[in-house]
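User: Hi! I'm working on a homework problem where we have to compare a predicted structure to a textbook description. Could you give me the structure for the chain below?
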Amino acid sequence: MKKITSIFAFFLAACAVAYAQTAPFDMSGEREQGSTPMVPRLTLPATPAPAATPMAPATPAAPTPPFSMPPASPSASATPPSQPQTPADVARPQPAPPVAPAQAQRPAQPAIRRASQSSVLRYVIPFAKLGLDGEYDRKSWSIYITPEQAAAPAKFNFSYQNAVVVAPEASQLTVLLNNRIVGQQPIASSDAPSNVSFDVPAGLLQPGANLLTFEATQRHRTDCTVQSTYELWTDIDPAKTYLSFSGQEAARFSSTDAIRAIGVDETGRTQFNFVVPALEQPGTTKPLLRLAQGLAVLSGMPNQTFSFTPDTLPQAGAGRMTVVVGTPTELQSVIATPPAAQAAPLASFVTDPKSGTPVLLISGPSWPAISSAIDTIVSTTDRPATAVRDTLVTERWSAPDAPLILSAANLTFAQLGVATTEFSGRRFRTSFNIAVPSDFYANAYGEATVLLDAAFTQNVLPGSHIDIYVNGNIASTVPISSTGGGIFRHLPIRVTMRHFRPGLNTLSLEAILMTKEDEVCVPGTTAGAAPRFALFDTSELHIPDFARIGQRPNLAGLSGTGYPYNRATQPTPLFIDRIDSYTLSATATLLGQMAIVAGRPIDVEPAATPGAIGERDAIFIGSISQMPPAVLTQLNIATSSQASWRPPAAAQSNQTERAVTFDDWRSKVGGGVWRGQITSFQEWLRRNFDISLSSLQFVPGSEEAFTPSNDDSFLIAQGKSAAGGSSWTIVTAPSAKDLREGAEAVTAQVNWPQVAGHITTYSSKTGKVESIPVGRFDFVASQPWSISNYRLIAANWLSTNILSYAFLLVVLSLLIGVATAAMLSRLGRRE
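Assistant: Happy to help. Predicted C-alpha cells:
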C-alpha cells in the first residue's frame, strides 16, 4: 500500500511541474531594469548640482553654463560599445534623421516668429549642411540681432549627431558667442541626434552683428592612423539649431535696419517675396531691381532668392521677408496703407493683419515717389564705382571678412582669423580666406609665401609634413625631417598662385603628424593628451606684386567680383525678353548675387531692343527662344538651339538603332589605341612639366559654336560685343520657369564659385555645374600704364604660351649672336 501511495504522489508532483512549464520563460522585467545603464547617452559636465531637467537653465554662478537636454528615449538607444563596428556605422546617416524627443521638436513653421505664445525663434545656420570633420574643425559666422532681440532673454538650441568611431571621453564640442564659451560638451551622440539647449548669458548678445562659432575636437576610438581621422565627423542639424527669444517684443521690427536680421530658414536659404500689383508696367522694373540689389547687400546672406507676385501676400516663414511695393491705390486689395503714403514716400515695417508678421511696405503717391522711398533704403549700400574696397564681405557665412589684396601685402594669421592653437592629434587643418581683384593675372608664374611660425615635439617622426591647399588644390608641401623636435620661425613656404581665381579664395594649412606611439597604438592612447604641434597666429601670408589686366570674356571675374559691371560708371543696359514673374525673379536673384560680390548695387537700365545697347557692357536675360539671334551668334551659341534646346520627347526614345558591324568596332579599337597613347603622353606632359596642347600653339584655334545639351537647363555665357569693345553676358534657359529655377540653383553659395570660363551650364537633373574654358580672349586695360605692371603681364603671358616664349628666346639669341659677330669683326687684328 505504501508503495502504491508513493507512486501516486510522484505522479501528482510531475503533473504540477509540467503545468508550471507551459508558461514561457520570461526575464522582461530584468531586461527592462538593466537596459538603461547599457545605453551610452550624452552626459552632462561634472557638477555638484542635482540632475538637470529638460531645458533647464544654466547655473548663473558658473562661467560656462552646462548643456541640458531631454531625457533619453527608449527608442533612441545607442549601440553598445561591445557591438562590432561595420562600414555603415562610420558613414554619415541619410538625410532623413530619426525622430527626436517630442519636447525638442521644432514648430511646424518656425521663423523670426512665434514658437509659442511667449517666445520667438530664429534659425542661425546659413548652410544646408554643417559638418565638423577631422580631429579639429572650427566654423564661424555672424548673425544680425535687432535691439529688441538683444534685450530679450534668449536660449540657444541645436541638434547634433556624430560618427560612432568618435571617442566621447576625448572629444569635445564647444559653442562660442562673441568669442565667449557658452557651452562645452563631450561628443557622444552616435546612435541618434541629440537635442541640446542652454541659456545665453544676459547682455552677451548685442544689437548688430554677433559672432557664432562651433568648434569640435575629435579623436578616434580604436585607430591611431592618419587615414582614420577622415572617419571623424559631427553634423549639426540646421533645422533644429536656433535662438529662442522670450516675449513677443522680439518679433517686432522697429526700423528698416532690421532688414539685416532676416536670417535663414531651416535649410539655410533666404527669400524675399515681392508683392507688386503694377509688376508688368515697364516703369517699375528699374526701381524694383535696385531695391532687390539693395536688400541683397543689406542682408549679405549667401543663399538668397527673390520672387515676384502681383496680388497675393505669400505665406510667412523662416528666413522670408514680404516686401509690398505700390501706390495706395494699387495696394487697396493687398494691404492697408497708412494715410501718410498718400502724400509722401513711405518705407517702413507694418504688421500683416492676417499672419501678424512684419511686412516691409514701400509706397507713395506715385512711382517717382516710390523710387525716392527705395533710395532711402538702398542709398546706405551705394558706393562709387571708382572706390577701392578693403574687404570682400563674407561674415554672414564665414567670418572674418576676406581682405581684398590689390598689390603686395603681408597679413598675419591673426588678421586672417586664425588663432594660436596647440594640437595633440595626427592631422591638423585650419583655413582662412583672402580675395583678389577681377583683373588678377598671375596664375602661370605667381608665387605667394607663407611665413610659418610653428613648433613640434621630439615625438614627431621624419616623414611628417605640412601641406598648403588653395581652393581645395594642393599648392605646396614641406617635409619635416628633424628628429628632435623643432621650432619654425617664419619658415618660408612657397605657394603657387596657379589656383587663385578672381574674388574669394580659401587657403588651408594641414599638418600630418606621425609618431612612434601611433605606430604601436596601445589601447587607451588614441586620445593623444600631450600637445605635439603648435601653430602661432604670428605666421604671415605674403602676396607679391602681381599682374593686373582685365580679360574678355571672363565669367570667373563675374562670379568673383561682378566684373565688368562692378566698374561701370554709367548704367548697364539690361535686355529682358518679357517682364513676367518668372523672368523678373530670375533677374533679381542673379543681380542680387552680383551685387553681393561687387559690394554695391549695380546700376542697370532696361533696354527695349538690342539695337539701343550699342557698344556698352550689357546683360541679356530671358528664355532662349526670345533671345536675339545676332546676340547668340556674337557669343558663339548656335542659333539652332532656339528650336532644339528642349527636353527630349517620349517618342524620341523609340527610334531604331543603326546596325553595328565588326568593321566599325575594328576602326574604333585601332584608333583608340593610338589616341590612348597620345592622351597618356599629354597627361605625362601636364603632370611633370605643366604643359598642355593649348600652350603649344602660337594662335588659339577657332572655337566651334556651342549647342546646349537637352540635359542642361540653364546657361550663362559671355563674349565680345559686335564691335569687340565691350562685354556681353547672356543668361538663358529653355523656358522662363527653367530660368528662375536655374538662377536660384547657380547663385547658391556652393555653385556660384564654379561659374567660370566662356560658358557655364547647369543641369537640374544632375545638379552639376560645368564650364567651358576660354579659348580666345582680349586684354582690357584696367590700371594706369606702368612698366612694372606690363613686365608682369608679359611674364605671365609668356609662361602660358611656351612656343611663343621659345621663339622669342631663339630670335633674341640670334640677335645677340649677330650683334656679337658684328662687334668682334671690328676688333682685333686682321691678317
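For your comparison, note the following. The mean pLDDT is 83. The first helix runs from residue 2 to 20. Good luck with the assignment!
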